[in-house]
Amino acid sequence: MSAPAPVPNSPASQPSVVRFRTTRRLFATLEGAFHEEVFFLILSVFIGIFSGLAVVCFRLAIDWTHLALLGPLPQTHTWRLFLVPGLAGLVVAALVLHLFPGIRGSGVNQTKAALYIFNGVIPFRTAVGKFICAAIAIGSGQSLGPEDPSLQIGASIASALGRWLKISREKLRLMAPVGAAAGLAAAFNAPISAVLFVIEEVIGRWSAGILGSVVLSAVSSVVIVRWFLGSEPLFRIPVTTFKRPTELVAYAVLGIVGGLASVVFAKSIGYLRPRLKALPRWTQYFQPALAGLLVGLIAFLGAPQIMGAGYDSMDQAMHGQFAWKMLAILALLKIIATTFSFVSGTPGGMFAPTLFIGAMLGGAVGDLERIFFPHLTGSTGTYVLVGMGVLFAGFLRVPMTSVFMVLEVSGNYEIIVPVIVANTFSYLISRSLQPVPIFDLLTRQDGLILPSLEESREEAILRVEDAMLPVPAIILNAQDYVDANARRVQDSPDSTFLVHPHPSGWNVITRDQLQRLFQEGKGELTLASVLPVQSLPSLYPDLPLDSALRYVNDYLLVPVVNRADFRKLEGIISRDSVFQKYGGKRTVSTN
Amino acid sequence: MPWTLPKLVPRSAPVILLILTLAAAVSFAGVGHLVARFTANQQARGRTLYAQGLADISAARFDDAIAAFRAALTCDPTNSQYQLSLARALRDSNDPRRLDEAESYLIALWQRTPQDAAVNLALARVAAHRGSIEDATRYYHNAMYGVWNSDPDANRSKARIELIQFLLKKSAPDKAESELMALATALPPDPAAQLQAAQLFAQAQDDAGALARYLEVLRLDPENPTALAGAGHAAYRSGNYVTAQRYLENAVKTNPEDADSRQLLATTDLILRTNPFHSHISDAERNRRISAAFAQAEKRLTECAQQIGVDLKTTTTPLASSLSTLQSRWTATQPDLARLRSPGETDLPDTLMDVVFQIELQTSAICGPPQGLDQALLLISQKREAASQ
């Protein structure tokens, strides 16, 4: 005979009810804790985890493709080396044209466009297509890198997650850069550089609101990658030295050469890309293949180092494995190979090729300088590292990322001064000879106009002090009598007057108000006693002029005070002065 | 489509996070499985390439070996053995440009396992290639006191011997000798090891130490021709001619083709036959030897003067003056020879032989190393001088 079922509300059912209530209370507490900001931060960690996992798979896919197509030990002068990149190019072209349109190129621009134009939407299909096509292209030896595709894969995953969770449009827009940082950090194994790059290039402006999420996602993705693939750095860093400040001249020369090389590289891409895109559609089936054949030919003839990302060759260059002539040739060949691989529309990134060109150029310049000036103490490895930063600063035009990237990759702060000096020269030369940065150029070629941190850096910011009028000759004292104040303003051409604060705050009064008070028989009263109890808002001279706009419609005069002493008047702001500074023709009377 | 995405409902947040956690865990496991399989395949491929590299090393094809080890490392980037082998191949490829890369691999390994003797030994060899005594000594010492996977005693001795050879090559005999002292205390009773140590002592010009090691070898292997000759040579260099004669005779008997030992034996015999200070000879024999040496010295002086074209009667040049002074001293001392037989002239042999030694030393410096009896007299003088010091 079975036992009778417990009767509801009977003593036997009490424990389960208590448990249920406890769980509900727990859930209710948790729900209260998760407002959208907190949830977004937690979500950033998950974005980092998923992006990290995707990048791990992406790197495995590239390695596997490379092994399958080129073998573990590629030999020069073999037909396989010559043909594989071209044949893989045909496959990639077919996939891009028929299955995954919109995955051409690096992916940085597309991510930025998603942020600013498409409300944070990057189709998940993009991640899949980028994953497959970039793995085939890079694995087969096309002269492209895995970092930018990783960035786009991360952004695409983040965007898909945001849409699945139906988060607000405002937050969804921010998902793409958060995912981008995670993808790039995982690919580079360098979270600081990834965060800075995303701020400098993808977001295009400093935004404190998103910084926490970007950092969290970048760090969590790096943790994932290190968990699976180990924490080995990209390069084995040799001993790097910087002993004498006079040697900065040598690094400045490297910066100049790097800047010029950046311009050549950027102009080549800028010139060829629209022309190849303008060719008939059927040619797009063959453009990646032809680029692949060019890469294969270079490798076949004796420079297989230029294939793929080329990290192994950079590592060898860092340890002085190539003579300066070979380094210079490799830099030149890599510029040619990457230009054609990229403009052909093959999906893949420009980070690794940029580092490669910089490394080879740095090594070549350093070795050459040491031939003429044997007393220079910098090792080849030092010049190679500095060279990487130089091309980063000159070609990608991300000066802060370029400095931190070298420091993060090398783990050596001794070379920070040479890096900054060389990068500055490279950046300035590149900026003067190629005014539009490469990513902006590519965006404009695609018909999009996106904000740029470089442009915003150069924008002149108007501040309160720019529109500030001098301290007025007459400032009324709130403790003086009304009739005394009325006499003071009698001969003044102004119609509005500031009243000195007591005990705190500034006030304002017009000539008419003073007259009226006098006529009402309040001349024997102090101004403080008859003025309405309200204090004017005040501004500081260093505030952006935009902040004055909030007040000038409501107040005739706004005092500009010293930050250290609010009683000390630095000047005044009026509607007229603000609009005149903005260049408006409208004249508004302060009366 | 207009944007209608609702703001995230806070109530669902814990559930969503739970789902995301589960999804992450499942993805994590899946990727982990994928990575494990890929890694296993890569490691297998790496082993094949590594074996190929080792074969290339055996055949002294260093470039091929380097390429194979590099490829093995791309398959298994953290494998210490591959890194060590690549570093060794880079180091041994006789390309100075590759030393930097070899060193960076080794430094990375050293940072992970500073106690690894093989890594320290490889670093010591890189430092030795660079000629850095300080670094090489440090890493050799690390290797000696580090952890060896097999046969630690023998490997430690080998490392120390390598260090000694390096120090001797870099002309640092003092440092080499201190290492030799340490080596001698830890040597196994093995004739080959003792013989090698004895030769190193000899290279470090520690003849007493060398003789002691050779005698140890002869205790273990009495007929060892190398040890016999080595002992004879060491004893000869340290001025112990009686001992040298004994071992050189045995060396020549054991290995009649040992021309060096034969020649040295002849010189030793001559020294022993002509040394007037030998303790087991009669006064008459001593006097005879002094007279013969005195006559030989004059002959040597005359021949030397002729060799360089100097007239001993003139003192126009410093050389002529020097030889002429010696001639005058010899002439002034010659009458004293007659007093050798007189009792009570205990200092006279020393005075006469002092003139002989001065002549032999000076002529040796001016006219080059002598042969035969003059060589014997010169060696006797050197021994005498060393004894007096």
Task: State the helicity of chain B in percent bands.
Answer: over 70%
Residue runs with pLDDT of under 50 for 5 or more positions of chain B: 1-10
Unreliable segments of 5+ consecutive residues of chain A: 1-13, 585-591
Summed up, the helix count of chain B is: 17
- What assembly state would you assign to the polypeptide chains in this entry? heterodimer
How would a textbook summarize the main sheet of chain B?
none
Order of helices and strands of chain A: HHHHHHHHHHHHHHHHHHHHEHEEHHHEEH
Question: Which features would summarize this protein structure in a list?
Answer:
heterodimer; A: 591 residues; mainly alpha; Clc chloride channel; CBS-domain; 3 domains; three-stranded mixed sheet; 25 helices; 62% helix; elongated; disordered N terminus; disordered C terminus; B: 389 residues; Serine Threonine Protein Phosphatase 5, Tetratricopeptide repeat
Walk me through this protein's architecture:
The complex is a heterodimer of chains A (591) and B (389). Chain A is 62% helix and 4% strand. Chain A has helices at 14-33, 36-70, 79-98, 108-116, 124-139, 147-164, 169-188, 191-203, 208-229, 248-277, 287-300, 311-318, 324-343, 351-372, 380-396, 399-410, 416-433, 438-445, 453-458, 464-467, 482-488, 511-519, 527-530, 546-552, 575-581, and strands at residues 475-477, 496-500, 507-510, 558-561, 569-573. In chain A, helix 13 packs antiparallel against helix 14. Chain A starts with 13 loop residues before the first helix and ends in a 10-residue tail after the last helix. The model of chain A is unreliable at 1-13 and 585-591 (pLDDT under 50). Chain B is an all-alpha fold. Among the domains of chain B are: 187-274, Serine Threonine Protein Phosphatase 5, Tetratricopeptide repeat (Alpha Horseshoe); 284-388, no CATH class. Chain B contains 17 helices and no strands. The radius of gyration of chain B is 36 Å and the shape is elongated. The A-B interface holds A 27, 30-32, 34-36, 39, 42-43, 46, 49-50, 53, 56-57, 60, 63-64, 67, 72-73, 119, 163, 165-169, 171-172, 228-230, 232, 236-238, 312, 316, 319-321, 379-381 and B 3, 5-8, 10-11, 13-14, 16-17, 20, 23-24, 27-28, 31-32, 34-35, 38, 42, 45, 49, 67-68, 70-71, 74-75, 77-78, 97-98, 100-101, 103-105, 108.
